[in-house]
């Protein structure tokens, strides 16, 4: 058997025998994913395969039916909410029973308040058993309201004369005019002596123009920084689940730790002198480095794949359509991770130093490379730095495959980058190893 | 089989091995004896190609360590001072691994593993994890791992450190047997008794320099041939003794140390009857008599200024 295979076999055997290590690097990520699943999935592991719309109750506001419907539609269009209109008391009960994750209690005369610039206080009831979902509701609505208010403020500062409260008979006309019912609008205009009609039409025109200009959706869940987002007709933000967004980046992140741990073994072997024994034996430094690389690759890639597989089975993570691409990315990512951590392992002298370096490196790379949030949400500055990390390319590949439902051809670029990083890193690590071996610093 | 000429090895500016020279014959069991920090491990590391030398030439089994490290590596076995084993694997898996690395496979690998487990008396524990082994068992397996490929020369770096007398004698027996079968052994230790019992020749090393070299008798001759006689004498008789002693071949004047007379003589066997007669004539008893032949402990003290026990 070639020495490299003997070495790899030995390392893998040790991994398997090391129950604690196995638990930590294979089972712990699975466990954490499950926890994450429970947090987003509402308690049941197997129940909700995809993040469904969050049930939201709306009450109060004494708005015309038409407006109620439009508001509900607007909220449902985001695919984040399933909206029910009800009365205040029922809303409270719905939240209590958990049938709604949150309820919004709108104040009386909501429409008037908005248009006359009075303070608008909206009551928010949150289901204490679903803190994540309820929190999400609060977050999104707060953001939406802020945008709405900003729009209002901008409009009023542009056309202060349009203040509805100073529009004479405004209350009546406004009610008919905003009902959306052409008959009522017509009636309102008929009653007019002409001046109101002109004024209203002017204002309506301005208002429509303004809101067209502000057409950006009020609620954005994921920012569309990357062009491909719009182009992909198959899977937009709507159909991707939170698992599709987060599980791959988590899996890549855990894979990084797993690969780093194998490299750490190299230092442990140096410290307990088995490395000295190897160096006295019939293996070259290049073979020892290569063997550690292969082991780190195998462990990292299988960990990554296992986690994705777990996500697929339990949460319906979208890997079924391109299994080969998912596998290739995992192998390329594992190879890149193995190389990068081997180089790190070769520039420090002790396991302790490597531990510290690896921890900082992994956390920073994870942060700027898009492991804590979807790569699609990375701004241009972050993207600039993120591209320098190897994990960014793995995250991006999985974003293409899983979030956007694309195939192998879409990730050839990312795979190439990963393979290049792997090749350069491995060569460098081998050189560093030989250099250190010749200088006798490895024993 | 091993030839070391003017070997120098430095760590930065610190000289760990200082112009060391010695030769080891084929089939010899050579001991490198020295206290902690003497440079034993450093020497073995250079000889086994782990560390580059800073000066001198080293030839092992016909191969120069600097020019043909691969050739050296194929012919040597090394047992490091530390337990260099994979503790999370079984004894058998450890031996299998080292055997496979040297190209053994199939039934020859299997047979070799069995043989060595048998030799180090670990057959029954073959499937047990090394982490559960006692110190003595680990030491024996550590030795076995260096023998898997049947080397021509074996470097043993303090293979008995930290284990009890019984486990130690098992290891020493095994080394003796291996040497009887023709294996050349370079054995380092800081235990004088081990070197004395086991080795054909001993090099005493201290602060990186060779302080003495030879078989046991040759070494002893280096500190001179004097015997030491100790006994208790009433103090009033001491002055008379000083006057008489010169005639018995005494070296220097007798001294009193810790209440006893210390008399150094050329030949204890001849001086003793004369001393006895002298005492009888004065009606004095011969109490607490002790005769000490020259030994390596004295030699070692002379050479290194340190008692071996202090270094353990
Ligand atoms: N890597 C190193 N860097 C600097 N100094 C070292 C290094 N290794 C050993 N030394 C020093 O070189 C000297 C010789 O060390 P060496 O390990 O060869 O001694 P030794 O005879 O094997 O001792 P021991 O009986 O404790 O094993 C010691 O003073 C030690 O402190
Ligand atoms: Mg030593």
What does this structure look like?
Chain A has helices at 3-17, 19-41, 65-77, 88-97, 110-116, 131-158, 170-178, 182-190, 195-213, 228-231, 242-271, 274-280, 285-315, 323-347, 351-368, 380-386, 390-403, 412-438, and strands at 54-60, 81-86, 102-106, 123-126. Chain A is mainly alpha-helical. Chain A has 2 domains: 3-45 and 239-438, no CATH class; 54-229, abc type-2 transporter like fold (3-Layer(aba) Sandwich), CATH 3.40.1710. A 4-stranded mixed sheet of chain A has the order 2-1-3-4, sandwiched between helices. In chain A, strand 1 (54-60), helix 3 (65-77) and strand 2 (81-86) form a beta-alpha-beta unit. The radius of gyration of chain A is 29 Å and the shape is elongated. With 312 residues, chain B is α/β, with parallel strands linked by helices. Chain B folds into 2 domains: 2-216, 3-Layer(aba) Sandwich (Rossmann fold); 227-293, Alpha-Beta Plaits (2-Layer Sandwich), CATH 3.30.70.2030. Chain B has 12 helices and 14 strands. Chain B has helices spanning 40-47, 69-75, 91-101, 106-119, 135-145, 165-180, 192-198, 216-222, 238-245, 268-281, 296-304, 308-311, and strands spanning 2-11, 14-24, 29-33, 55-60, 63-64, 76-79, 153-157, 184-189, 201-206, 209-214, 227-232, 255-257, 260-265, 287-292. In chain B, a hairpin with a 2-residue loop joins strand 4 and strand 5. In chain B, helix 3 packs across helix 4. The longest helix of chain B is centred in the middle third of the chain and has 16 residues, at 165-180. Chain B is elongated. Residues 307-312 of chain B have low confidence and may be disordered. Classes of the chains: A mainly alpha (443), B alpha/beta (312). The interface between A and B is medium-sized, with 24 and 32 residues. Bound molecules: adenosine-5'-triphosphate and magnesium ion.
């Amino acid at each position: 058997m070639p020495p490299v295979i003997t070495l790899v076999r030995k390392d893998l055997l040790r991994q398997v025998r090391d129950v604690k290590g196995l638990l930590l690097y294979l089972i712990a990520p699975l466990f954490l994913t499950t926890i994450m699943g429970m947090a987003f999935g509402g308690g049941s592991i197997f129940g909700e395969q995809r993040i469904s719309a969050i049930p939201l109750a709306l009450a109060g506001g004494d708005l015309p039916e038409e407006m109620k419907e439009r508001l509900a539609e607007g909220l449902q269009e985001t695919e984040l909410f399933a909206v029910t209109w009800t009365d205040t008391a029922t809303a409270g009960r719905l939240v209590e029973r958990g049938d709604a994750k949150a309820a919004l209690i709108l104040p009386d005369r909501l429409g008037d308040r908005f248009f006359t610039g009075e303070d608008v206080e909206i009551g928010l009831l949150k289901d204490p058993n679903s803190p994540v979902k309820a929190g999400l509701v609060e977050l999104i609505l707060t953001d939406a309201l802020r945008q709405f208010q900003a729009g209002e403020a901008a409009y009023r500062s542009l056309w202060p004369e349009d203040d509805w409260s100073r529009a004479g008979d405004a209350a009546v006309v406004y009610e008919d005019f905003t009902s959306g019912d052409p008959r009522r609008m017509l009636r309102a205009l008929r009653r007019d002596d002409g001046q109101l009609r002109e004024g209203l039409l002017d204002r309506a025109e301005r208002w429509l123009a303004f809101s067209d200009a502000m057409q950006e959706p009020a609620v954005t869940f994921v920012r569309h920084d990357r062009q491909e987002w719009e182009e992909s007709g198959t899977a937009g933000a709507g159909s991707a689940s939170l698992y599709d967004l987060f599980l791959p980046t988590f899996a890549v992140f855990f894979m990084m730790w797993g690969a780093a741990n194998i490299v750490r073994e190299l230092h442990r072997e140096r410290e307990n002198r088995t490395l000295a024994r190897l160096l006295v034996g019939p293996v070259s430094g290049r073979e020892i480095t290569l063997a550690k690389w292969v082991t780190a690759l195998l462990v990292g890639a299988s960990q990554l794949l296992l986690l994705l597989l777990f996500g697929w089975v339990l949460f319906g993570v979208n890997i079924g359509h391109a299994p080969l691409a998912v596998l290739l990315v995992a192998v390329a990512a594992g190879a890149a991770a193995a190389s990068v951590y081997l180089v790190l392992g070769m520039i420090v002298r002790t396991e302790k130093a490597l531990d510290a370096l690896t921890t900082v490196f992994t956390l920073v790379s994870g942060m700027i490379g898009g492991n804590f949030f979807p790569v699609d949400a990375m701004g241009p500055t972050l993207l600039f730095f993120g591209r320098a990390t190897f994990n960014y390319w793995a995250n991006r590949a999985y974003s293409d495959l899983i979030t956007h439902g694309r195939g192998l051809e879409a990730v050839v670029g990312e795979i190439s980058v990963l393979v290049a990083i792997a090749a350069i890193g491995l060569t460098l690590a081998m050189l560093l190893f030989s250099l250190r071996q010749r200088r006798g610093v490895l024993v | 089989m091993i030839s070391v000429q003017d070997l120098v090895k430095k760590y930065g500016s610190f000289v760990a091995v200082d112009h060391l020279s010695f030769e080891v014959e084929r089939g010899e069991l050579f001991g490198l004896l020295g206290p902690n920090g003497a440079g034993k491990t450093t020497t073995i590391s250079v000889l086994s190609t782990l560390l580059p030398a800073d000066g001198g030439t080293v030839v092992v089994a016909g191969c120069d360590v600097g020019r043909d490290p691969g050739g050296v590596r194929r012919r040597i076995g090394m047992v490091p001072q530390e337990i260099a084993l994979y503790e999370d694997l079984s004894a058998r898996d450890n031996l299998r691994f080292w055997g496979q690395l040297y190209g053994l496979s199939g039934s020859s690998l299997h047979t070799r593993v069995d043989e060595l487990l048998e030799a180090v008396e670990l057959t029954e524990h073959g499937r047990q994890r090394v982490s559960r082994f006692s110190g003595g068992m680990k030491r024996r397996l550590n030795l076995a791992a260096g023998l898997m490929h049947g080397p021509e020369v074996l470097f043993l770096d303090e293979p008995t450190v930290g284990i009890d007398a019984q486990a130690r004698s098992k290891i020493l027996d095994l080394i003796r047997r291996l040497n009887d079968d023709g294996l050349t052994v370079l054995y380092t230790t800081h235990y004088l008794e081990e070197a004395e019992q086991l080795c054909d020749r001993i090099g005493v090393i201290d602060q990186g320099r060779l302080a003495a070299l030879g078989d046991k008798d040759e070494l002893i001759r280096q500190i001179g041939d004097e015997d030491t006689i100790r006994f208790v004498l009433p103090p009033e008789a001491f002055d008379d003794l000083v006057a008489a002693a010169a005639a018995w071949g005494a070296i220097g004047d007798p001294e009193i140390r810790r209440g006893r007379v210390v008399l150094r003589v050329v030949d204890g066997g001849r001086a003793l009857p004369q001393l006895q007669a002298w005492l009888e004539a004065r009606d004095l008893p011969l109490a607490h008599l002790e005769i000490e032949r020259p030994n390596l402990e004295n030699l070692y003290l002379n050479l290194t200024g340190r008692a071996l026990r202090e270094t353990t």
